[in-house]
């Protein structure tokens, strides 16, 4: 115990740091140092004792939360403790021995060492601890405290559906405990934030003069006073009469709620700043049992309240109150604005009362759903234009620019590219992140093509780190020079869902130098206009996604001649630009597009995803400068079979990239076998996930070289629609991977292809694992652990996870070109390796056990 304590200001600064970092353990330790430390800590630890932050405690359980409640209730006068609180919180909680509740502990008067209740400033009943009780024990408690008969009378469900009676009783009991606990712990003169049950407003109204510091109140429905029409029609006459009484009680309770707020604002002017009534959902997944606060009472509450006082944040909690008194609210200190979750009436208020964002002079962050067709940020562009004009003339601007850093906006209208430019220009000096998306309901495939979205002119965003735009069913046209004005951008995501491949009208982006770029995700029109040489100047790139269409659609790759600019071209500068080529033929248009060389230098690349033609023309040897690659996914998204070149050992050669054009795209590997073996191959030691989806023809030498030389540390691999090998080749090739956990294989069924024979799988050393299989029949004992989440087995005797093999077959679409056989085969059984078959089966390397499950296609 310290004899010379720290100055109180220093100690409180240290305690505030612990509190801000949610270091609850250290705060509780300070309570045991000495009285000086304890009294300095209590305001931080007990201001909101039921806060959700306590859930970070590793040992936080119902039992510990009950101890907290008991500690607080011991400082409540005995006369204020109801029988329900006494028997529930101070009775026995050991429900395993008897369904009968034990009598409450005898509370002897005592003088506490520390006083906790005076420091409790916030009481939200949602966070009060609850305890699940057996039905028998709950009924015994209710009978003991005299509530059982009352609940039976209030239960109007019993005559309609007796199954809901238990739910009703449990809910009524929980709400009773919450009401009584909140009332017992509330110190009227000190509480600042409070939640009140609607049915309990009467007794709080009687204390309204004492609630001098109450700044925020939230009302909630605690009783079922309104029922759906179909429920009422099924009620007994007695229950219908009682239901009418409930409706009248509900009206009285709501009137009392409004009167409480009105009286408080009259007596304690300017103190109460926030009041709302939340809708109640008493029985989960039963919409008929919802309690909706009528709009007139919501508006009555808002009418009683003063305008928000110098708000810093306008979000779901405060937006309606702000919208109701928009003109009277001082917005100079607003730093964050969010209306994403605002209700329809609030949005109508905001739209009809005119612009207001220009009044938020401290605005730093905006997350907004744009309403109507107005440019919400035109004011920012005009202010910036006037600011620049005055600065160029050497005059001092009247007011500084708004320093907004983060903007996230969702449009519900077509177009709006000008609004994006207004944001970029108006906040150009400070903008760090810009995210734009169009509402899904305006992006249906059944709708006609949307108006293109063009933006990016004259961008100068030196601080921009994140750029994300998804126009969905509208062409995304980024100005060719836009990225030149974003030298420090780190993440770029530009998506549309367009799948047309017309080159007319496309303007290629200019080659940009983006040394800080770490993530590039482009899809659709953005992928077609992207300048590939940009990748040569992005050494920090970690994630690259490039493709066409959507993740859930299958889109045909166009004619090879229309995308031949993707072919590697030896000696090309790659600096050609799309220019005035109106009316030119596709062949002439191609001369304006740079060739893809695939000779990228990206030492930090971890994820590479390519779809459609970008996957088709991908070359594995481009990965020679990507030693940190962890995930590689190639998906042709091809609806019908396309004959492409065979993948062989030469794919991984370190020799110069082979020249490709439309004439040799179908060529096979004709290299001499001995020469191939003498080659040096690329190394991908960190590659753990591989996905190949497309109609490649893959030979055994490709898999052999890939798994032995190039990517020996794979954990997961998936191939789909590939040809040139069967299940036996697949299992044999994968057997050399020591760390493999799961492998999936599926392919189209072609006429004449043999059926997948389960006997062949057994010939590979696999046997069906059924319940009750003896341990002597398998190598190792397996325990199923967390099957719903992991879906794999653990090998208990050595701790290794066996490989999961998935096999599936699906018919190719009937396109009227190829002769197909329509059938679907799959295996949904689990297999393990037979001891007797290990010696005769195909080589499997270190894999000791194999499980097979179906692949959901």
Topology of this structure?
Layout: H1 8-20, H2 24-30, H3 35-45, H4 62-73, H5 83-89, E1 122-123, H6 135-145, H7 148-154, H8 165-185, E2 193-197, H9 201-206, E3 216-220, H10 229-233, H11 237-267, E4 274-278, E5 280-281, E6 290-291, H12 295-304, E7 313-314, H13 319-324, E8 336-338, H14 344-352, E9 365-369, H15 378-392, E10 406-411, H16 417-426, E11 433-438, E12 453-455, E13 466-472, E14 476-478, E15 491-496, E16 519-523, H17 525-529, E17 543-547, H18 586-590, E18 607-611, H19 612-616, E19 631-635, E20 646-647, H20 673-677, E21 689-693, E22 697-698, H21 700-710, E23 716-720, H22 727-734, E24 742-749, H23 758-763, E25 766-768, E26 782-784, E27 793-795, E28 803-811, E29 825-826, E30 831-833, E31 850-854
Parallel strand pairs: 1-2, 2-3, 3-4, 7-8, 8-9, 9-10, 10-11, 11-13, 12-14, 13-15, 15-16, 16-17, 17-18, 18-19, 19-21, 20-22, 21-23, 23-24, 24-28, 28-31
Antiparallel strand pairs: 5-6, 25-30, 26-27, 28-29
Protein name: F-box domain-containing protein
Short description:
This protein has 857 residues and is of the alpha/beta class. The longest helix has 31 residues, at 237-267. It is globular, with a radius of gyration of 35 Å.
